[in-house]
Amino acid sequence: MSGTSVPARERAENITNPYVVGRPLTGASASLYVGREDVFAWLAENLDVVGPPNALLLYGERRIGKTSTLYQLVEGPRGRPLREGAARRLWPAYVDLQRLAGCHTDEWLRRLARDIYRQVAHHRPSRAMPRSLAGEDSAYAAFDRALDHLEQHLPAGDLILLAVDELEQLRAGIDAGALDPAVAPFLRSQAQHRSRLALVFSGSYGLLDDSWRPLIDLTARYELRPLDFEAVAALIRAPLAGELSYDDAAVEQIWQQTGGRPFPIQAICHRLVSMRNRQGRREPIDGDEVLAVLAEMAGGGNEMVGNGLGRAQAAGALSLGSAP
Question: What's the chain look like in SS3?
Answer without folding.
Answer: CCCCCCCHHHCCCCCCCCCCCCCCCCHHHHHHCCCCHHHHHHHHHHHCCCCCCCEEEEECCCCCCHHHHHHHHHCCCCCHHHHECCCCEEEEEEEEHHHHCCCCHHHHHHHHHHHHHHHHHHHCCCCCCCCCCCCCCCHHHHHHHHHHHHHHCCCCCCEEEEEEECCHHHHHHHHCCCCCCCHHHHHHHHHHHCCCEEEEEEECHHHHCHHHHHHHCCEEEEECCCCCHHHHHHHHHHHHCCCCCECHHHHHHHHHHHCCCHHHHHHHHHHHHHHHHHHCCCCCECHHHHHHHHHHHHHCCCHHHHHHHHHHHHCCCCCCCCCC
